From TrEMBL:
Swiss-Prot/TrEMBL keywords: Membrane, Mitochondrion, Mitochondrion inner membrane, mRNA processing, RNA-binding, Transmembrane, Transmembrane helix
Stated name of the protein: Mitochondrial escape protein 2
Source species, domain of life: Eukaryota
Family: Belongs to the YME2 family.
Keyword Cell wall biogenesis/degradation: no
Statement: the UniProt record of this protein carries the keyword Nucleotide-binding: no
Species the sequence originates in: Lodderomyces beijingensis
Spans annotated as Disordered: 368-389
Ranges that cross the membrane: none
Amino acid sequence: MLKSRGCFNFKLNFNCNCNRRPLVVRTPFRNSLIRGSLYRPFSTDIENLKRQSDNQESDNSASATGVIDKGSNEVLLYYSFTNSRSFIKPYISRFIPSKWTDDELRAKVENVSSPLPDNSVITELVSLPRDSGAFVKFKYPPGLSARDFVKDVRENVNKHDEGGKFFENAFTRALLNSVWNSSTQVYSVKGVPWIEDLRRFPSAKLGIKYEGKPLTEEELYVLFRRYGLIDDIKIDAGEAFILFHAVRSAICAKHCITGMQLNHDETTIHIRYVPIKKTNFLIDLVASHTKIALPILLALLATFAVLIFDPIREWFIQLKITRSAHKFEQYRENKWFKLVYVPYMTLADAVTSSYDYIGNQLQDVAGTRDGEKHMGSGGFGGGGEDDGTSLQEKRLESNMFWRERLEKSKELKLWIMENTDTFIIVKGPQGSGKEEFVMDHTLIPDSRLNRKVLVVDCDELSKARSENNLIAKTASQLGYFPVFTWTNSISQFVDLGVQGLTGQKSGLSESKETQIKNMFSLATQAIRRITDADYKRYKTGVEKRNRKLKQEDEKIEVRSQEEFLSQHPESKPIIVIKKFARKADVSSNDFVFPLIADWASGLIQNNTAHVIFTTSDVGSLQHLTESLPNRVFKNIPLSDASIASSKQYIADALKLKDTFEIDDCIAPLGGRMLDLQAFIRRIKSGENPPQAVNEMVNQAAELISTFFLHEHKFSNDDSNWNPSQVWLIMKLLSGSDSISYDTLIKSPLFKKSKETLDTLTTLEKYDLITLKRDKGVLNVIETGRPLFKAAFENIISDVRIWKLYETEYLSNLIALEIAKITKLESELTNIFKIGKVDGRIDYLSKKIEQSNQKILDYEKEINDIAEFKGESKRQSFLGIF
């Protein structure tokens, strides 16, 4: 092979069994001679096109045309500086400048290529930031061939990289290079490079198109193997694909070979990047095996969500129990805090035109402290106070009204500190102050008991009207955060879609019972962590103390966690469950009360917490009995205050020296806290005592007539009484403080049956009556609230109302007798059909006659009521309107 100044041809023969034509490669060096014949200088189509387009243009640089010109004694090399594994870099290369300036890049090339032969200079340099490389055009000395020059440069680059290696071990270098190869590589450019900045990003796969005859796999391998390891070569019609092991190899091959002419100018190669369509095994698995993969994927997502959010929710529950979130209240009275916060909220209100409760309270703190000044000057109606209970009233309540319950409060504390089966039930009618008794007068004043308290208001859960509302309220009660109620709707749609695709439910959609149960289960874990934290502190303290003791000193024994909790009841949180009931206001929420009972029983059985229930519904104890069988509960019954205590409480609240003005008003009010507080508010608003009591009685009468004496059904179908039954009870209780159960069931409207007990229990739930039991058996029926007794008298004394409901009551009795007669007549008819005549006929006949006589008497009473012409006798029980 004869070399010339510009180029050379070479012929490759493959040692293979197949008959392949030799590959003749013509390099783009000018004026090549081969086999003694002179070839004319050649130019590619791109070069011809560039010459034509360069005419009359001022800027013919590579950045403008994408083609690098090359003259005599010039060689074009491609430098690859790094592995460029970042998949983000190609996308952002358009928007960020190169990290090297032209001068810095020139210095780097000269540094890695030194020492260059004498009279060798860099004539042009084109940076490729996207590919982490650069084209460098050298002018070499006339006495040196291009091949020798390229060889010298490549050897210099290799020596430079080897001298900078930190690791001498070949295996270590190979391992590091496979991960991050930062060594510089240099290759000679054999084709006509196309410098483009299209949105065609580097890929390990190259697509090769031919102008002329295509190449075989062996020929492609010979051309491309020098640039890196090849994983695969595929031949298609008129096109070939080469898959390199590394993207860097593909980049170097594309820049050095594209535009190369082979086989005596019969073949020209054009190379492009081909995006690799990677198979997503997860998507392929889901698409191919939907019934298996989709439920598993959803289960994994749910597990992942639990692992993230459950620890956060558990921490928030602990925060609510330990009352750390309420530490803000401790700083509200601090003068420095108010100095900063009050001006800030004033400015914020001026900007947003909003009302901030905390800010206004802080600004009015002086007036709040002097709340007793707004309670009146001793006369009725002189106070002008709008709100209900001031600080002074609370102190009076603590000093006077609750004095009768002081012993019971001490008993409650004693049971907690005894720490044995602290499953305590505080019972009492509505408005008897059960919650205030437990919280304000027992737990909060005691520094040992008020540190770890969780209050669950069952009434909030009972009234939830939707599933999302129930979940949100439960989360609020427990401190369960974050909660995503919107996911319920989404999960239902997802579950429906999965069922349509796979034929089975995904399990992603959970019932509200399961979700509420999971919330309480997480609360159990949070409570256990609180007790564990105290035990760990105790254990650490004992071990630290033992380490300080001398060897001859007796070590302190570390007790087990159960022993520690038994001796330190203050370490266990106190769970207060308010307004526990038998049924919920919304029937779909009935499951909440048994669930809470089971949850509380689990806390007691595991010795994790103290539990206190407050309830006015005696029927709710059935849930507790089922949750904790064979246990005797500790009960604290609360009743209304005595007349003397109620009178003193009102006198102190109103600052009265003489109580004769309110003596006649105490009896109808009784000792019910809510009614006494309402009476005090009315007096402060300007009413006199008789007027205030009469208005309260009228309101109670209106409530009873509207709620109990009208035929209506509630959403939970809990109104299982009829107005006639309520009317009869009102008449009996208006003339007596109590009636016996045996007396009530003598009426035809009440039978000694489960339906009667259910009706009476429901009326007790709504506070109309109170049921007294002797050894668990219903014995006495009393008025639910003392004020209702006066309301009963008020309703019955109204002639118009009396005529209406008395007539309805008698009509119901007539209907019962008619139904009885119909049944008796049916039996008589059957007897005559079988032709059997005996004493039974006489018995049935007498029964029919008795019922018929009752009907006549009832009808006479109805006529007498209709003919009654008396004026309305509606007046107050005090004789005042």
